[in-house]
Structure formats: C-alpha cells, structure tokens
Design brief:
7 helices; alpha+beta; 8 strands
Length: 225
C-alpha cells in the first residue's frame, strides 16, 4: 500500500510538472474564462456588481479556482488582476496563480468563481513580493449586489476588497477568504511575449495589448470608466 501511494504521488507530481509548460493558447483561454466569469456575474441583477461599487474600483481581481480530488486533494486555480491608472484607463490583465479557496460554504464544489473589487490602490502592490492571502493580508468582505445596494451603507463600500463569489448564503459584510494568490511572471512572459514582470505590466504602458486580451479590457473599462 505504501509503495502504491508513493507511485501515485510520483505520478501526480509528474503530471503537475508536465503542466508547468503551459502553451500560449491555454493562457489565452484563461483570459477568456476570466472575461466569461465577469460577464456571467454582470448578466443578472441578483449577482451583478452595482455601478456604486465599480466607481470605487482601483483594481479588479478575477479568480477561477477548482478542486481535483484524487488521493491528495490537489486544489488550485488561476486568475487575473487589472489596475486603474491615474488616466482612468485600465491596465492589461496580468495572470496570477491561485491557491485553495477556503470558502466554507463551497464544500463539495468543483469550482469557485470570484470577482474582487479592490478599492485600495496599495493592495495590488502586495504582489510585488510574490503573493498575498485574500482575507488575511488583504481583508475582503462580501460586496453588495445590484439587487440590494439600497440596503448598504458607505462604510461597506469603502472596504479594501469587496468579494463576489458564486455561492449560496454569502451575505454582504461576511468575511471572505480565498487563499493565496501569487505572481505568475512565467505565464505573462509567454502571453505578452515580453520579459516585463507584474509591476511593469500593471503600471506602465510598455506593452501593446494583444488582441486576445482587449475584450476583457474593454468590458472592465465599460463597467468602471
């Protein structure tokens, strides 16, 4: 039995390393998935992020986290972050790694899709040191949806991170934890064909946005002009 577990672990680690070299087409699909997540949230009034919240946005973080059961319960995911520049224009979407989603109400879920509206300009800069923990290093609370915005006050709208998560029973003001998110510079090197890292991609205009990321940029710009 011990030998079987060791072999299984070796196979799992081998598969993990095999996936390390992700193709550009796969990375483009990640961008498209994040765009689809945001569109899905906005399409219905009972899940839509209201304009009052978008007006507070200094950055937006979109996560797609998943569980892959097997013997060792490997969990992970990916996401993108974008920041709003002083000019009012939004940055290119920068790819991230996402660790386990520790959302207690999501027990048994195969995926957890989240959108975080960041109202604090300093929070994205935590990624300069590789990673931060959503809900610990950066406090996050469940944000008001369009259907209930009239019941929420200005204090809630000033929270550093407002979370929108596909779950049941998550109410405005609830504390949200989504595990660690980390830089994925190697993925961005491939996606943008550049050696610029996360800080330059977020805060400079040194990279021309490729056509594949422009629909997500246009959507965010429309929501938070």
């Amino acid at each position: 039995m011990k030998k079987f577990l060791l072999v299984s672990l070796a196979a799992l680690l081998g598969a993990t390393f095999a996936r390390a070299e992700t193709s550009r087409a796969d990375l483009v699909r990640r961008i498209e998935t994040c765009e689809a997540i945001l569109q899905t949230f906005q399409i219905r009034r009972d899940t839509a992020i209201p304009p009052e919240v978008w007006r507070q946005a200094k950055a937006v973080l979109i996560l797609n986290q998943f569980k892959a059961g097997f013997y060792f319960g490997v969990q992970g995911g990916y996401g993108v972050i974008m920041v709003k520049k002083p000019s009012g224009r939004w940055s290119v979407p920068v790819l991230l790694r996402a660790a386990e989603a520790s959302l207690g109400l999501q027990i048994g879920a195969k995926t957890v899709e989240s959108v975080f509206i960041i109202t604090d300009a300093n929070t994205p800069r935590m990624l300069f040191s590789q990673r931060f923990n959503v809900g610990v290093d950066a406090k996050a609370v469940a944000g008001p949806k369009a259907a209930e915005i009239e019941r929420n006050n200005e204090e809630l709208l000033q929270a550093p991170m407002l979370a929108y998560v596909k779950t049941v029973g998550l109410y405005a003001g609830a504390t949200v934890k989504a595990g660690h998110i980390a830089r994925n510079d190697s993925a961005n090197f491939v996606l943008y064909n550049t050696k610029y890292t996360l800080p330059e991609l977020l805060y400079s205009d040194w990279v021309t946005p490729p056509s594949e990321v422009q629909p997500l940029m246009a959507l965010v710009q429309k929501l938070a002009p």
